Amino acid sequence: MARRLNVHLTVDLMTAGYARRLNEAIRALSDSLIVFDDASPMRPHITLVMGEAMDSEPSAAMQDALSVAVKASRATVLSLELERPYYVAGTGYVLADVAPMNTLDSLIACVRGALVPRFVQAQDREGWVPHVTFARVDPGVPAVDRHVESQHPHGPVIASAIEVSNVGPAGSCIDGLLRLPLPADMLDR
Question: What is the tally of structural domains in the chain?
Answer without folding.
Answer: 1
